[in-house]
Each structure stands twice: as structure tokens, then as C-alpha cells.
Amino acid sequence: MGIKYLKKAIKTSSTDDVKTREIVHNLLNELEKTREKGCIELTKKFDKYDGEITVSNEKIEQIDKSLNKKTKDDIKFSYERVRKFAEAQLKNYGKDFEVELSKGLYAGQKLVPVNTAGCYIPGGRYAHIASAVMSVTTAKVAGVKNIIACSPPKEGVGAHPAIIYTANLCGADKILNLGGIPAIAAMTYGMFKNSPADILVGPGNQYVAEAKRILFGKVGIDLFAGPTEIAIIADETSDPEIVAIDLVGQAEHGYNSPAWLYTTSEKLARQVIKRVPELIKELPDVPRISAEAAWKDYGEVILCDNDEDMAKISDEYAPEHLEVQAKNLKWFHDRLKNYGSLFIGEETTVAYGDKCSGTNHILPTKGAGKYTGGLFVGKFIKTLSFQRMTKESTKEVGSTAARISRYEGMEAHARTGDVRLRKYGFSKK
After folding, report:
1. Per-residue pLDDT band at 125 (split at 50, 70, 90)
2. pTM of the predicted model, to two decimals?
3. 320 among known catalytic residues
4. Which among 128, 160, 253, 321 is annotated as catalytic?
5. What homologous superfamily does CATH list for 114-222+377-382?
6. All residues at 6 or more sequence positions from 6 whose CB lies less than 8 Å from its CB, including other chains
7. Which of 53, 151, 165, 246 is surrounded by the fewest CB atoms within 10 Å?
8. Distance CA 382, CA 286 (A)
9. 80 catalytic, yes or no?
10. Residue from 320, 323, 346, 361 carrying the catalytic annotation
């Protein structure tokens, strides 16, 4: 690559990250404890403001009356185009497109896969063959050209043979015998003659999850993962044996894997509470030890008055995996909003989605289902916007942008519009 810097930056955008991270970390910890009082005190300290925090309707009406018409028209001009573009994005979700927002102003988007994806495949307590399928396959289908897979090695063996076979079958370009923090570092920083990853995906233990969290920003990640979760919605029509075994099926993941039951049937709840420990005792040692600890410390059974209450508590928890084993399946499907993946009816179960039925098992935990879904092809694809304009459109857009910039106090922004207005003959200034 033949390049030459005529001016080289002294600093980068990350120069002050460590100091900033420490300050923010400390303040957030404090605000978690002090809440509204802490917010008010810090606002007084840093912003010198001692008025109302929540803006009242009366204040909004007062401001509406006080702003001049030209200012409001300029703001509406911006709003109308941003709204129109957002509507076009929704209509064309997952597609390339271009739209004329106003005469001579064209905007659009193109979908571009990332160059390099790093896929972490757990292989410590269990050989997570399915995780290789979920991560590598999805990246390959998305169009990622370079896929690196890492899995923890065993002494004298390396990564589990079935994991290596799976990663290769699904399209991994490089497979590394690396696990834990070294694996995350190697993929992020581009070690072992590989390009640095643009995104890291895949489940892992708490150390893997924390490494991804710390490195987020330097590299993209699929989601902030925690211990796996299951919740089941059940009523008097549900089979307590199936409910119980499905709870145990996820609890075996680890000592801190939550298993929750929301039910309108106290009879079923009592049957499940009795049956779960019995089923756990029947497991081999490794999953038994994990499931016992998980159910003891993280298991919950919540009795609800009706279907709406079950749906409400489920949306509050936003579980990673949510099974519905109740009579009103369509109602729950339509009503439920927060979860990683939904399993509708007794006939399906989390293990099917985890292993082979088609939906992805890399899913949001710790309530993240309130704002994101799980791994899908879109995680590997950048949605990039663009715009182009005619000179004639500058008369309206350029003058509006300049005025809004000056309202904001951003004079240099305004002048980028001014220079074009002058050049294209729309202003004598």
C-alpha cells in the first residue's frame, strides 16, 4: 500500500479513554445508589442549574410561543426530511435503496458486510458444536469474507475435533486453538497472521463476556452476554413434567443460570417445585452440580392471577429463552414483546433452537431483550447511508442548514453552507 502522511495526528480518538472510563465508571456507580438525588446534585455542580428536571407541558407551550416562525420552519424542514428518510428505511428494511426527499435531494442506504468476523466457540465444560454452527454459518451467509474461529484447546488434543469439523464445514477461514481472554485478544488485535476482527460474536464464560465488554468500541460485538436464562409461561393445561424438565434443561449450563416459571396454576407450580430437584438428581455429575446450584440460587416460580400478569412479568424479565406452554398461544405470541427467542407450544423447546431447528441461540440476556434481538445476519452487515444533491437543491437545503447551525452556535458548520450558496449563485454574501 503506497501512502504518505502529509500531516499525522498527534493523538487519536482513544487517547483519553482510560481516564474518561474511570470517571464515568465511578459516577455511574454512585448514581445507581443515589438515583434522582444524585442526578440533581451533579446537575447543580456541573451545569449550575437548579430548576425543574422534568420539562412540563406548560414550559413546552411557552417555548412554542416564544420561538420565531422562521426558526420553527427550519426545524420542521429538518424533521420532515429525517422522518421521510426513516420511513423509507423502514419500508426498505434490509435492502439497498435511494429516495428523493425533496427536489434535487437524494438519500439512500447500502448494505455492506464487515470484512472480518471473530467467532468464539466455547469448549470448556461442554463442547458447544452448535455455537460454531450459529456464529460461523450466519457470518458466512451475511457475506463476511474472512471468518476466524477460536475454541479452547484440551491438553494434547487442541480444540474439540467436532468443533473444528463444524467450524470448517460452516465456512471458517482460520481456526485457532485458543480460548478465554487470549482468544478474544487474538481476534481483536489481529494475531497469528490474521486481520483484526471488525466484530466478535459467540457465547462464553464471564471472563470472555467481560473481555468483549471492555473491548467494545475497538471492535464490534454481538451483544453483552450473561449466563443463559430460561422462562416458561404455563397454566392449568400445561404438563408439569415437561415444564420441569425444560427448566432443568437450561439450568445445567452453569451454577448461575436462571430458570423462571410464570404460571396461573398453583397446583402446577407445586408439582414443578417438587419435580425439578428430583430430575436434577438423575443427571450425571457435571450437569447435576451446575443445575443444583442454578435452581437453588437462581430459580424462581411466580404465581400470577391471569394471562396478562404472566405476560407483564415476562416482559419485565425479558428472558433469553421464553417458552409458552399454555392454551392461549396466539394471544401470547401477539402480546409478548421482550425476549431473545420465543418457543410457542409444548411441541418445541429451547434445546431444539439451541442445537438444530434453525433459529440462532446467541441471544440477549440480563434484560437486554428489551432493546435488542439475538445474533442474525444483520449483525454482520453495516447499514450505510449516503446522500447526493443537485446544485439547485442547495438554495433550500444549504440556507436551512446554515441557519440551524447558527441557532446551535456552530459557525464553522454554517459557513460550509454559505460557501456553496455563494458558489452556486444563490447568495451575494
Report:
1. confident
2. 0.87
3. yes
4. 321
5. Nitrogenase molybdenum iron protein domain (3.40.50.1980)
6. none
7. 53
8. 41
9. no
10. 320
